[in-house]
């Protein structure tokens, strides 16, 4: 790549760090008419002096008016001035932002139990059926039970292995679809979403709600509603910043979220009802035919045998977590990997050379090839470093006042862990804004996704680490390897790659990645 092209990439990335919103934010910090909030009762545990990390803010609104749409950019910029831990008021809510890997470790490892609660917004409360799911549930026996049931079945190696045939079928369908579009523009996020939702759908109720039973393909409808649910989860809501106003639902976010959730609920309820009304013999026949149980079959059988069966609401909340939480994250990451590769043609060439060598051009990628794809693995890790799907993870809520980095974090405040900043920190990473997969190649075991390296946490860490990690890891590399092995990709004539982000619960690309595929394999029948 030329020096000029490299410079352009760096410039685009740096623009992400210094947005126009950050500039107005800077101006606001310096504006003298702002009221300065004096440090309240926050004292350093070490020397008992008042800490100096409360930011200037506007009465009542706190720091709210100064934050731009990309919260992680603003938080990173503030950390440069106020240090690795600072607090700010957003409305009436006290928030702490933690940026250094050492302090992140204190939260997710040293005080993991205390910080194992979530701060569920109004939109999250609705999406999680009142906080009874895995993602927003209060840490305790009910949450543990739900997470255990889910992880022990859905994410056991045996089940993930048994579901390979499903993943394969869905990936092949996507390759066939892309092949049909050869030479014309394809929205890669959309294809990745459909692959991911169809695979998940079949893992959950594939054996019971088949197409021949009259169910229509829910993929497209689902993407629309997932986008809506995620959008509402990310939308700043007066009700969250001023809980006393929550009952008025001034922006209508609660109402809109209820409407969106009613769409997914209808789909889930129908699947549950079909499964519950199925005669036992038919049910068993399906299990034998597929050589495994669907998640729904498993959950309903679990309910029959368990002293503490899951309620209908818990079932719905769990399905929402999986179908909503599992799809947008995977899709966004596929889009970012493809974007980075198209931006860095040398890296794309290396990935494709590896695929040609390991898989060959006379056959399709199989899961047994995946552990040998070291370069692609490094590319995915590097993409996660620069573009973690959840740059601030999911905010935590301490159950008791606790000291972190010498500062007291009071019970009930929101705690943001800025992993986006840590993963771009120049004191940790060499040339952090450059896309350099090689940094992950030398010692592959050094950086995994298990949350033990606190400078690199794309799936979080501790008790609340991503519950879908093993499945996400397998799906992601399989989908990417297949897309990159089967096709050459280029941008439509006259278009430029856009690397800007749109912050949300899942931070997506600002503009969808659209690219033109050309078949790469030797035989046409491989695509059919
Ligand atoms: C590229 C794919 C994915 C990424 C990057 C990702 C990332 C994350 C992150 C960062 C968290 C928060 C962790 C923390 O706070 O420490 C999380 C939580 C969660 N994820 Fe994922 N995720 C992905 C895919 C999935 C999939 C496929 C599923 C389900 C099948 C899933 C289900 C969940 C659930 C249920 C939680 C909440 C866990 C809890 O609070 O205990 N995720 N994910």
UniProtKB/TrEMBL annotation:
PROSITE patterns linked to this entry: CYTOCHROME_P450
Record keyword Nucleus present: no
InterPro entries attached to this UniProt entry: Cyt_P450 (IPR001128), Cyt_P450_CS (IPR017972), Cyt_P450_E_grp-I (IPR002401), Cyt_P450_sf (IPR036396)
Pfam families to which the protein is assigned, alphabetical: p450 (PF00067)
Coiled-coil annotated spans: none
Keywords from the named record: Heme, Iron, Metal-binding, Monooxygenase, Oxidoreductase
PANTHER family from the UniProt entry: FLAVONOID 3',5'-HYDROXYLASE-LIKE ISOFORM X1, OS08G0547900 PROTEIN
Record family assignment: Belongs to the cytochrome P450 family.
Protein name, entry field: Geraniol 8-hydroxylase-like
Protein species of origin: Prunus mume
